[in-house]
């Protein structure tokens, strides 16, 4: 089956490895066609000005193209600058913003309902990494890193 996912990096920076396809399939479904584009501050500022009438760069923009397709634009340079503000490392914040963008594509608007969904997916894909805990899918048990079994 052809994967309905594309990633475009228009920056000069290397991106971290993240489970983009798994997250997409989990939130939007396997039949949803998604493009993730990573842009410079200048390019995302221009797009933000055109579509939101805000003449400044933003960390994420989501565009629903049809019922089963959309595009998420992200600005890695801006996201790197915001890591302290959100108390996350770059990989975690980037992943969280991808989740945030996908929930918008699913039709959610900023609300407590969206926050609950963000926390659910954030916990599934990134929480264990922030707290040194891995989830063993086969046994359903948590395994703490750095702790020897006695």
Structural key phrases:
globular; Collagenase (Catalytic Domain); 20% strand; four-stranded mixed β-sheet; two-stranded antiparallel ribbon; 150 residues; alpha/beta; disordered C terminus; 6 helices
Main CATH class: Alpha Beta
Tally the helices: what do you get? 6
Number of domains: 1
Compute the gyration radius: what is it? 17 Å
H/E element sequence: EHEHEEHHHHEE
Spans with pLDDT under 50 lasting ≥5 residues?
130-150
Total DSSP E strands: 6
How far the N terminus sits from the C terminus, by CA atoms, comes to: 46 Å
The CATH architecture name reads 3-Layer(aba) Sandwich
Gist of the model:
The protein is an alpha/beta fold and 150 residues long. The chain has one domain: Metalloproteases ("zincins"), catalytic domain (Collagenase (Catalytic Domain)). It is built from six helices and six strands.
Topology:
Blueprint: E1 5-9, H1 20-27, E2 33-38, H2 41-52, E3 60-66, E4 69-74, H3 76-81, H4 83-86, H5 90-105, H6 112-130, E5 133-135, E6 142-144
Parallel strand pairs: 1-2, 2-4
Antiparallel strand pairs: 3-4, 5-6
Helix pairs in contact: 1-5, 5-6
Could you characterize the architecture of this molecule?
There is one protein chain. With 150 residues, the chain is of the alpha/beta class. The chain has one domain: Collagenase (Catalytic Domain) (3-Layer(aba) Sandwich). It contains six helices and six strands; from the N terminus they run βαβαββααααββ. The protein has helices at residues 20-27, 41-52, 76-81, 83-86, 90-105, 112-130; strands at residues 5-9, 33-38, 60-66, 69-74, 133-135, 142-144. The strands form two sheets. A four-stranded mixed β-sheet has the order 1-2-4-3, covered by helices on one side. A two-stranded antiparallel sheet has the order 5-6. Helix 1 (20-27) packs parallel to helix 5 (90-105) and helix 5 (90-105) packs antiparallel against helix 6 (112-130). The N and C termini lie far apart (46 Å). Residues 130-150 have low confidence and may be disordered.
